[in-house]
Design goal:
- This protein has two domains: 153 residues, Rossmann fold (3-Layer(aba) Sandwich); 107 residues, Rossmann fold (3-Layer(aba) Sandwich), CATH 3.40.50.10490.
- It contains ten helices and nine strands.
- It has a five-stranded parallel β-sheet, with helices on both faces.
- By secondary structure, the protein is an alpha/beta fold.
- It is globular and about 55 Å long.
- Helix 4 links the parallel strand 3 and strand 4.
- It is 37% helix and 15% strand.
- The model has no long low-confidence stretch (mean pLDDT 95).
- 52% of the residues are buried.
- The longest helix is centred in the last third of the chain and has 18 residues.
Length: 292
């Protein structure tokens, strides 16, 4: 079994540990009413997008998600939070250094000895969710589950549901699909971005992602009988019908979208294996991007 597959399978346990960690008390996470910037790169950026949408929807305060490389000092924030599994990504460390003096900063990482921890005023360490694989799976999902709990959501049942997702059927057309599109709405747009990234990283698949209502505005033109369109969360009315008219297969689920992401992670590994690729060794990628 690849490291990636093993780490996907471990998520019920890391999710439980994330809930326990929060129950024991954590400092440094945004407080209600704060105006917050959340920064990340790649997968961590997509988790920032999810969190920003969830936090605003929950009424906790204005929240912006930024690619770390684009984060500037043009806006006033009460707190800046950085997501980074390794804590060594150059753009993350440099962005933390650009935060205005006096603004609290928090790094959420897997490595307690990383540069991001030294650069931030506070650290939340999820070392139990660290990974050997380049392709991130359990760290970002554990992070997002913890943040959802911090926003007041009842996530106690999700670890058990994640366990069922490890054995749930994948879309019948997935292996033969020429092209896969993941769609989301609200906070699940970030999940759709992450699901597509997994298939690109692990399997070099033609995988795209969009806000669900935007799909009709151009991207649907590539859909045909060899396409799979996977919607994370409830689809907008009429969208599934319009996609099926193209001949594409549509995957819908009533599961919690984060749980459904576990299935999308499994799909990425299965596609890689079917193509003779090693998901632990994605082409042109490294576990952390450290620039000279």
């Amino acid at each position: 079994m690849s490291h990636t597959a093993a780490e996907i399978a471990s998520q019920p346990d890391t999710w439980r540990r994330g809930i326990e960690l929060l129950a024991n008390g954590l400092g440094g996470l945004p407080e209600r009413g704060e105006r917050v910037a959340v920064i990340g790169c790649g997968t961590s950026l997509f988790m920032a997008q999810c969190y920003a949408a969830l936090r605003e929807a929950a009424g906790h305060g204005e929240t912006d998600a930024w690619p770390a490389s684009e984060f500037g000092r043009r806006r006033e924030y009460h707190r800046v939070v950085a997501f980074s599994r390794s804590g060594s990504t150059t753009e993350i460390v440099e962005a933390l250094a650009r935060v205005r003096p006096g603004v609290p900063t928090t790094a959420v990482v897997a490595d307690p000895d990383s540069a991001a921890v030294r650069a931030a005023g506070h650290a939340v360490v999820l070392d139990f969710a660290d990974e050997r694989s380049v392709v991130q799976t359990r760290f970002p999902t554990t992070l997002l589950l913890l943040l959802r709990a911090h926003l007041g959501e009842d996530v106690a049942g999700l670890p058990a549901l994640a366990a069922t997702a490890l054995a749930a059927a994948l879309p019948a057309t997935a292996r033969t699909a020429r092209q896969i599109t993941f769609l989301g709405t609200g906070w699940t747009v970030g999940l759709a971005n992450e699901a597509a990234l997994k298939s690109r990283e692990a399997a070099r698949a033609w995988a795209e992602s969009y806000p669900a209502m935007e799909y009709r505005h151009g991207p649907i033109s590539v859909a045909d009988e060899r396409s799979l369109v996977w919607v994370l969360g409830p689809p907008p009315p009429g969208l599934a019908r319009d996609v099926r008219r193209t001949g594409a297969a549509v995957e819908l689920s009533t599961a919690d979208p984060l749980v459904d992401l576990v299935r999308a992670q499994r799909l990425a590994v299965e596609l890689a294996t079917a193509r003779g690729l090693d998901p632990d060794r994605p082409r042109n990628l490294a576990r952390s991007i450290i620039l000279p």
